[in-house]
Amino acid sequence: MSKKVAFYTLGCKLNFSETSTIARSFSNEGFDRVDFSEEADVYVINTCSVTENADRRFKTVVKQALKANPKAFVAAIGCYAQLKPEELAAVDGVDLVLGATEKFNLTGYLNDLVSDPERSRGIAEVHACEIDEADFYVGSYSIGDRTRAFLKVQDGCDYKCTYCTIPLARGISRSDTLENVLKNAAEIAAQDIKEIVLTGVNIGDYGKGEFGNKKHEHTFFELVQELDEVEGIERLRISSIEPNLLKDETIDFVAQSRTFVPHFHIPLQSGSNELLKKMRRRYLRELYVERVKRIKEVMPHACIGVDVIVGFPGETDEHFLETYNFLNALNISYLHVFTYSERDNTLAATMDGVVPKNVRHKRSKMLRGLSVKKRRAFYESQLDTTRTVLFEGESKEGYIQGFTENYVKVKAPWDPALVNTLHDVRLTTIDEDGSVRFDFVETQANASSIRSLPQQATAL
């Protein structure tokens, strides 16, 4: 009888791509993958260090695993495992902690431990390198979802943002070879997955080689050009890219691309130049305005998402209002709001001007409200336009969901025939609850597949 393994991923799309690759190594060892809520022999938790909440959730996830099987083997990997391995090892029920360079050899460590007759149950084994040793690259991609895959193209970061632990957890900036990225993309396309999301820590820095080589063998723009030629891919989406690394040539190429969609997620972090300097970001707000303006000039229908941090040390009411008013005036589509939390071994954690937590949460609530307003305005701008929806593969309360190419989230009554299919729709009206109605548009390409479907549905 084959053994069972279950995975739980905290954090970003990059973590999901790496979890999927590690899961395939377990399949090669004869394990069957099951849901994390089910009984398994091995539970793997891929950790995150970006937010305080992700740290706290780790203990809860361990308890969930041991509730399903008290005798299970529990392994912790990922960013938090690299930064604070001893802290994770001290959690009851954890057997193995692997850092940045060791996580891709999880099955090897597991086999050694399980076969060790002298191993003491209840004492976790820790393998976490000095982060300077994380100087090689392991390619990854996720294929758990029939419709969408996360393709890792880059890892690590050479930036020194004062609030961020990612360089400490993942090491220097380094990239996959162009040849291997294209090979992985072709493998994904061969499995009838319609959309690929490019992921990494700082993907605009794509091209740096291994072992600290600062030379770019290829540029991000060259990567985009080559991926656009891979057959079998319907959509390519750029997950997140720094404003100073998003060049006009890339924006212009996406505007006329065969597969890249008009959706950009561009971190801002603050609308105050004073705070951007304290954060050691590599741009000022004026550059951000230029990037948004350029995108909207060549793709008026493009969706633009923004990362922003509230409560950074020294953020006064005036600084916050500067950020709020800057974002309110900007032609963007939604916000990802992060409430600043102190992280060990970061410069920001030692700065004066600590913002009280209740003030941080109040500011976060205000920006989340602004995000709702921005998304509503963006949806209104898309009414009476025809978009293409890729429907996903899960029934959620009797509905099937999907996204247009420019990231309008839609839903329709559940119909398995829609799963992993692309359909043209016309967005029509917005209801009081914020939902958008649409009609299926009959075209030569999808005429036969929509005749049996309801002719109206709802977009969230």
Q: Can you lay out the helices and strands and say which pair or pack?
A:
Blueprint: E1 4-9, H1 13-28, E2 32-33, E3 42-47, H2 52-68, E4 73-78, H3 79-83, H4 85-89, E5 96-98, H5 106-114, E6 125-127, E7 148-152, E8 154-155, H6 166-170, E9 174-175, H7 178-189, E10 195-199, H8 220-227, E11 235-238, H9 248-255, E12 263-269, H10 273-279, H11 285-298, E13 303-310, H12 317-329, E14 334-339, H13 357-381, E15 386-396, E16 399-404, E17 409-413, E18 422-430, E19 436-440, H14 447-450, E20 456-459
Parallel strand pairs: 1-2, 1-3, 3-4, 4-5, 5-6, 7-10, 10-11, 12-13, 13-14
Antiparallel strand pairs: 8-9, 15-16, 15-18, 16-17, 17-20, 18-19, 19-20
Helix pairs in contact: 8-9, 9-11, 12-13
Q: How would you describe this protein?
A:
With 460 residues, the protein is an alpha/beta fold. The protein folds into four domains: 126 residues, Response regulator (Rossmann fold, 3-Layer(aba) Sandwich), CATH 3.40.50; 130 residues, 2-Layer Sandwich (Transcription Regulator spoIIAA); 114 residues, Transcription Regulator spoIIAA (2-Layer Sandwich); 74 residues, OB fold (Dihydrolipoamide Acetyltransferase, E2P) (Beta Barrel). The protein is built from 14 helices and 20 strands. The strands form five sheets. It has a six-stranded parallel sheet with strand order 2-1-3-4-5-6, with helices on both faces. Strands 15-16-17-20-19-18 form a six-stranded antiparallel barrel. Strands 7-10-11 form a three-stranded parallel sheet. A hairpin with a 2-residue loop joins strand 15 and strand 16. Helix 8 packs parallel to helix 9. The longest helix has 25 residues. It is globular, with a radius of gyration of 23 Å.
